[in-house]
Design goal:
The protein is α+β, with helices and mostly antiparallel strands. About 20% of the residues lie in helices and about 25% in strands. Strands 3-4-5-6-7 form a five-stranded antiparallel β-sheet, with no helix packed on it. Helix 1 runs parallel beside helix 2.
Length: about 170
């Protein structure tokens, strides 16, 4: 939380946290909470600042050998419930998608039932894209069980609880 970072979450404070606590990975729930430390940041648009922050987080990930996982909300264009949000629906800036090594979108294929969560791989620098991975999903009781890859016609091992794809 912001309290843990003295009221201001910045890329340099995140890098120090990774080094000091020897973290294996960092998950940031929203880039909007991270403040740019670049010169003239206050004179830039929100989209330009978001791009700068995503570049800084990518550099930290590479320099510290620590994945930085970032969740980002879709903009209004991602509200179409007939499909998972695409890269173009990233809220605030395309810079996050440009800098990311891996991008996946999450959505309910059936918004009425909400018992299945679809993870669609939109970008992967080191693997395949286009996978649509369906999971039986109930966060209230802790169920996450892989059902299958609807894009490629594969189904899960009935005893499996996770998907490790290539």
């Amino acid at each position: 939380s912001k309290r843990d970072f003295g009221g201001h979450i910045t890329p340099n404070k995140i890098a120090s946290w990774i080094r000091n606590d020897k973290l294996d990975a960092v998950d940031l729930d929203g880039i909007g909470y991270v403040e740019s430390e670049r010169i003239n940041a206050r004179n830039k648009s929100d989209a330009a600042m978001t791009t700068d922050i995503s570049e800084d987080l990518m550099s930290i990930s590479v320099d510290e050998h620590c994945p930085v996982v970032l969740t980002q909300q879709a903009n209004r264009g991602g509200a179409d419930r007939s499909a998972n949000p695409g890269l173009e629906t990233a809220r605030g800036s395309d810079g996050v998608n440009i800098n990311a090594s891996f991008v996946a979108s999450l959505a309910y294929p059936d918004v009425e039932k909400r018992d299945t969560l679809r993870v669609e791989v939109l970008k992967s620098r080191y693997g395949r894209t286009g996978a649509k991975l369906d999971y039986q999903w109930n966060p209230d009781v802790g169920i996450v069980k892989f059902i299958g890859d609807v894009a490629n016609g594969s189904t899960a091992n009935p005893n499996a609880g996770a998907y490790y794809g290539t």
